[in-house]
């Protein structure tokens, strides 16, 4: 699991590139996540990022007064905010020790590697969601594609039970590892707005 630490920075770099291409007019665009438009997906990322950072540092989660749905975190400085958050997550989860042992997320104990999986998934799957919604190209390194596919297979049943992944989507026999990962996470690789 700690070998995934080396994949965090390249995955984050592609994710950050997609973020920088999002304009004001894109915020209301539909995403492959049916319950989120671009603004709501950015809000989701900004809301849960500090929780993931705390899980990686094995510290207490942030104190919050609202749930994700009530939070309004996509203000005028949203890009700077999410870039700083992304850099902190890379700093934390780019270190192999963040993936070792146990941690908590949302008050629930879990293997620290699971928090790392969540960060890699956020960068890659939600990066792809945002790219699709805004018409941007999304490039995934082969080793990152292989990793998120393996993760999706490993945690798929649990993630679907928790409503983190959608129902598995069948992909073509000649699908790439990343397309297989998308399908395993409940995404249609051919989705368009």
TrEMBL record:
**InterPro entries (alphabetical):** CHP03086, DinB/YfiT-like, Maleyloyr_isom, MDMPI_metal-binding
Q: Which segments constitute the Mycothiol-dependent maleylpyruvate isomerase metal-binding domain? A: 9-131
Q: Report the domain of life of the source organism.
A: Bacteria
Q: What GO MF terms are annotated?
A: metal ion binding
This one is known as: Mycothiol-dependent maleylpyruvate isomerase metal-binding domain-containing protein
């Amino acid at each position: 699991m700690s070998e995934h630490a080396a994949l965090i920075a390249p995955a984050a770099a592609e994710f950050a590139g997609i973020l920088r291409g999002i304009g004001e007019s894109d915020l209301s665009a539909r995403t492959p996540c049916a319950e989120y438009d671009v603004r709501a997906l950015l809000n989701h990322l900004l809301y849960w990022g500090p929780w993931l950072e705390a899980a990686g540092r094995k510290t207490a989660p942030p104190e919050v007064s609202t749930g994700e749905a009530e939070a309004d975190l996509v203000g005028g400085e949203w890009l700077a905010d999410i870039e700083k958050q992304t850099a902190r997550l890379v700093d934390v989860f780019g270190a192999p020790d963040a993936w070792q042992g146990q941690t908590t997320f949302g008050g629930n104990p879990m293997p620290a590697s699971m928090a790392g999986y969540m960060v890699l998934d956020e960068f890659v799957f939600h990066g792809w969601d945002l790219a699709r919604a805004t018409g941007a190209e999304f490039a995934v390194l082969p080793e990152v594609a292989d990793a998120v596919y393996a993760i999706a297979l490993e945690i798929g049943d649990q993630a679907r039970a928790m409503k983190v992944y959608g129902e598995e989507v069948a992909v073509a026999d000649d699908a790439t590892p990343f397309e297989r990962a998308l399908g395993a996470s409940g995404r249609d690789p051919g989705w368009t707005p």
